[in-house]
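Fill in residues.
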């Protein structure tokens, strides 16, 4: 896909939330977002890649800072049936090579920051490492990645949230409930189930190609990381 088609221009979107975006949200302070925002305040026209579901508030926030924001819903893209391959034993898996060939296709060292949110906890295991490797490739040197990871206390039934930026250090968590039997929710409000828990060593190994990583432990069973390319 052409990069320009993924660039969300402030002039083409009002940033006003629709009815679904106005549903009840949970405010949350984010130290990682605070540091990322402070770093981006040093210039204009920086490029930010958001890997979560499209959020009008996120678009408005970064375009208001005169940055360019790009978007790819990585979790949704990973559900493409065309990515499913069958092994000789009949087990199905995801074609990671095809996924990275068709997604996150950008110039090398294009972005100043990537909002990874908690996608690593929800992605198919075969996609996590290739996605982080691709992010490393498309981030500029000293570029930032903001990621969230559930702690062990979160449990397998941890709620799934969309993340909306409410301010320089504030997030609004919009809970997406599991669908009712027979219910077909809109794609952007699809529910995902927690796949795994990373401990600190796992997270450090995941980002071993990056220059540094800083941890922030929250009170809601989420640890934030700010990773420098």
């Amino acid at each position: 896909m052409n990069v320009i088609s993924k660039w969300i221009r402030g002039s083409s979107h009002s940033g006003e939330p629709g009815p679904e975006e106005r549903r009840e949200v949970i405010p949350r302070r984010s130290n990682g977002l605070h540091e990322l925002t402070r770093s981006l305040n040093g210039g204009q026209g920086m490029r930010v890649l958001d890997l979560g579901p499209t959020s009008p508030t996120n678009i408005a926030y970064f375009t208001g800072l005169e940055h360019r924001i790009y978007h790819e819903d990585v979790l949704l893209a990973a559900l493409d049936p065309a990515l499913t391959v069958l092994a000789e034993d009949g087990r199905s898996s995801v074609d990671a090579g095809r996924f990275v060939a068709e997604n996150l296709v950008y110039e090398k060292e294009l972005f100043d920051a990537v909002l990874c949110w908690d996608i690593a906890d929800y992605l198919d295991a075969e996609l996590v490492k290739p996605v982080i490797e691709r992010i490393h490739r498309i981030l500029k040197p000293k570029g930032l990645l903001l990621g969230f990871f559930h702690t062990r206390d979160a449990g397998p039934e941890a709620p799934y949230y969309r993340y909306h930026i409410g301010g320089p250090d504030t997030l609004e968590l919009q809970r997406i409930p599991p669908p009712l039997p027979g219910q077909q929710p809109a794609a952007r409000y699809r529910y995902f189930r927690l796949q795994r828990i990373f401990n600190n060593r796992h997270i450090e190994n995941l980002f071993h190609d990056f220059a540094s990583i800083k941890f922030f432990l929250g009170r809601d069973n989420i640890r934030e990381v700010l990773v420098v390319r």
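Residues 20-228 form a domain with the Rossmann fold fold (CATH 3.40.50.150).
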